[in-house]
């Protein structure tokens, strides 16, 4: 098979996989604009005949969207702040030193990445309850989820720091800078893109966080949007178009950010992989 | 006398690895010192220890008379030029040049003035607003030099600064770096693995091997009176020829293990019968007629010609190199007559490698 044909076949496979993966997204937007009856129409309507824009206005008021998304923002920002502050220092050390302890630490960090939140949530809940952290449920969620995003952030940032040659830092030291000064004036600006992208990914993760919020935050007024959405699932009625309108409102900003920044994100993810 | 840089029995260990062994070195103000040796000999470690990028394990390091063992690099007031130049990629040439001044709190106007001044010295006036990645290798090298000069430091440290340049540019920069050193009356420590760079640029050459100073002195002292076999073989190009020999006669002659077993009257005294290693530089073996007195007949195995000189490689063990001027009309398998200048012969103890001459002098 010639190279051109292979490429076309591979492209077709990629498009097919993308279609399978993106179809739910499309279905979410379409359903959010349908009426209750047309949702269950057979055969299904792939384009809504009469778009029900009212669905959005209704759920905005009924479902307390501003409050839920506000809570999601608080949790995502808190997680990003804690992860970036602690994680970048940690990543820098892991990038600059090379010995047995560092290898052990890296292995431990990778192991943390493996543990799923659903496994961790019970011990964390019990631990937090015993020290009284559940009094501040959003903060407790931020702490718990930061521990989850930290390994991911540290591994990505370490790659970003490793692309900054050590000699630049040494040149700055000889030029009259302190270790800390050299970090902030030389290393940080040069690793900036990788750091920003990693932080952005952490933020998006935090924005969609579900497992910890669901277990730790009992008070409806403090719950994030990921939980708020499930309020439409009631034992007898499921308000599909409202749920989908809620979901669309929730993910569209994230999607927009991702599409706008996708070139930088891909660069940030692969930076350091080649060197 | 206070020296600009003074090392007194400096040692450096990395865990179990002994990188620097009892290094003592005194560099007067204005001197250009080259640290030279094969890779892994500790020359870069020594330079980095002077800069403060490595902590020395024991011994004393003084700069302008002041012990600096515990001072961080920024308090030592030294400038360093790195092999990779280490220019800050996110800053313009101007900002690269003035970075150290900015850290020192020099005013903006003064910084601008000094940047123009230094740019004129290194010939980069028109490139001040460029980023390092927009410069050629030679220009980057100049920026690295300029960044060192602008600070007017107590000494300059160079870590193989010319090794990334092509051959022609390297020869030109060699001269320029030395001229710059003389013009600003600097004190310089220059690390290189290239003995020609060391010989041509430095006032004082320090030869290192396995973390130890093998010999130090003026370039010509190292060339004429190498203290041991290592220095004799390291300094000079092509490298010195070595062959076995035996002290003969009353101790002032040596019999060479070459065809005809020639006996040379040397100025070096030794114990008759002692086996020695004899060193003769290729340029001190003179081509002559085969029937001349003391001429050694040698068979040529290969000829390398550079135009200005030809290198004749001989058959047999050990292989010898003979240098002649110009292009010789000699081919492989020809037999040549070689006379050896007895005054230019070096004798070394086979076990220790020490020169017999230095033992007697």
Spell out the key features of this protein.
heterodimer, A: 275 residues, mainly alpha, MetI-like fold, 76% helix, 0% strand, disordered C terminus, B: 361 residues, alpha+beta, Rossmann fold, OB fold (Dihydrolipoamide Acetyltransferase, E2P), 2 domains, 6-stranded mixed β-sheet, 5-stranded antiparallel β-sheet, 9 helices, 20 strands, 25% helix, 32% strand
Care to describe what's here?
- The complex is a heterodimer of chains A (275) and B (361).
- Chain A is mainly alpha-helical.
- Chain A has one domain (58-270): Orthogonal Bundle (MetI-like fold), CATH 1.10.3720.10.
- Chain A has helices at residues 3-32, 36-39, 54-62, 65-96, 100-114, 117-131, 137-162, 166-174, 179-207, 211-216, 225-228, 240-270.
- In chain A, α8 (166-174) packs across α9 (179-207).
- Chain A is globular and about 75 Å long.
- Mean pLDDT of chain A is 87; it is low at 271-275.
- Chain B has 361 residues and is of the alpha+beta class.
- Chain B folds into 2 domains: 5-233, P-loop containing nucleotide triphosphate hydrolases (Rossmann fold), CATH 3.40.50.300; 239-360, Nucleic acid-binding proteins (OB fold (Dihydrolipoamide Acetyltransferase, E2P)).
- In chain B, strands 6-7-8-3-9-10 form a 6-stranded mixed sheet, with helices on both faces.
- The longest helix of chain B is centred in the middle third of the chain and has 18 residues, at 167-184.
- The mean pLDDT of chain B is 91.
- Chain A binds chain B through residues 165, 167-168, 170-179, 181, 186, 189-190, and chain B through 51-53, 72-74, 78-80, 82-84, 86-90, 99-100, 103-104, 147, 151, 157.
- Chain A: Belongs to the binding-protein-dependent transport system permease family.
- Chain A: The chain crosses the membrane at residues 9-29, 73-94, 106-133, 139-161, 182-204, 240-261.
- Chain A: Residues 69-261 form the ABC transmembrane type-1 domain.
- Chain A: It is found in: Cell membrane.
């Amino acid at each position: 098979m010639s190279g051109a044909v292979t490429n076309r076949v591979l492209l077709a496979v990629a498009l097919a996989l993308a279609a399978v993966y993106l179809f739910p997204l499309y279905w979410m937007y379409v359903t959010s604009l349908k009426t209750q009856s047309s949702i269950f129409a057979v055969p299904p309507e792939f384009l809504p005949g009469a778009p029900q824009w009212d669905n959005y206005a209704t759920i905005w008021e009924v479902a307390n969207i501003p409050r839920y998304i506000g809570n999601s923002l608080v949790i995502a920002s808190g997680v990003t702040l804690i992860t970036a502050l602690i994680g970048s220092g940690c990543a820098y050390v892991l990038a600059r030193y090379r010995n047995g302890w560092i290898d052990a630490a890296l292995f431990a960090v990778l192991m943390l990445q493996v543990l799923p939140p659903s496994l961790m949530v019970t011990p964390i809940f019990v631990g937090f309850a015993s020290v009284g952290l559940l009094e501040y449920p959003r903060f407790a969620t931020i702490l718990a989820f930061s521990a989850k995003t930290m390994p991911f952030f540290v591994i990505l940032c370490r790659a970003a720091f490793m692309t900054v040659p050590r000699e630049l830092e040494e040149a700055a030291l000889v030029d009259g800078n302190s270790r800390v000064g050299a970090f902030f004036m030389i290393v940080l600006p040069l690793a900036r893109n990788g750091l920003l992208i990693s932080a952005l990914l952490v933020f998006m993760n935090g924005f969609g966080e579900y497992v910890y919020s669901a277990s730790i935050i009992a008070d409806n007024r403090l719950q994030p949007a990921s939980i708020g959405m499930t309020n439409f699932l009631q034992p007898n009625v499921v308000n599909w178009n409202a749920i989908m309108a809620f979901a669309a409102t929730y993910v569209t900003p994230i999607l927009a950010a991702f599409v706008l920044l996708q070139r930088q994100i891909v660069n940030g993810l692969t930076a350091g992989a080649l060197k | 006398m206070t020296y600009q840089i003074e090392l007194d029995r400096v040692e450096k260990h990395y865990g179990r690895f002994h990188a620097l062994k009892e290094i003592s070195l005194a560099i007067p103000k204005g001197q250009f010192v080259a640290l030279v040796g094969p890779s892994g000999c500790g020359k870069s470690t020594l330079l980095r220890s002077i800069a403060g990028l490595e902590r020395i394990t024991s011994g004393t390091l003084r700069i302008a008379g002041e012990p600096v063992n515990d001072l961080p690099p920024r308090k030592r007031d030294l400038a360093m030029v790195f092999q990779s130049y280490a220019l800050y990629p996110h800053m313009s040439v101007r900002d690269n040049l003035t970075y150290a001044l900015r850290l020192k709190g020099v005013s903006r106007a003064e910084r601008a003035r000094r940047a123009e001044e230094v740019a004129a010295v290194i010939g980069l006036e028109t490139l001040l607003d460029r980023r390092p990645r927009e410069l050629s290798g030679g220009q980057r090298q100049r920026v690295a030099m300029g960044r060192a000069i602008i600070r007017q430091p107590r000494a300059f440290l160079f870590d193989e600064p010319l090794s990334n340049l092509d051959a022609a540019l390297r020869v030109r920069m060699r001269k320029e770096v030395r001229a710059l050193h003389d013009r600003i009356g600097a004190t310089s420590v220059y690390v290189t693995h290239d003995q020609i760079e060391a010989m041509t640029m430095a006032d004082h050459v320090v030869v290192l091997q396995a973390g130890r100073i093998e010999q130090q002195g003026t370039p010509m002292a190292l060339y004429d009176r190498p203290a041991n076999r290592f220095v004799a073989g390291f300094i000079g190009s092509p490298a010195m020829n070595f062959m076995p020999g035996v002290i003969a006669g009353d101790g002032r002659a040596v019999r060479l293990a070459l065809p005809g077993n020639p006996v040379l009257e040397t100025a070096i005294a030794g114990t008759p019968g002692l086996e020695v290693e004899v060193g003769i530089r290729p340029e001190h073996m003179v081509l002559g007629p085969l029937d001349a007195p003391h001429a050694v007949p040698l068979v040529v195995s290969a000829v390398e010609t550079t135009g200005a000189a030809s290198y004749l490689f001989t058959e047999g063990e050990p292989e010898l190199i003979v240098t002649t001027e110009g292009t010789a009309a000699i081919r492989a398998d020809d037999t040549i007559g070689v006379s050896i200048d007895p005054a230019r012969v070096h004798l070394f103890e086979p076990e220790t490698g020490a020169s017999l001459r230095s033992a007697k002098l």
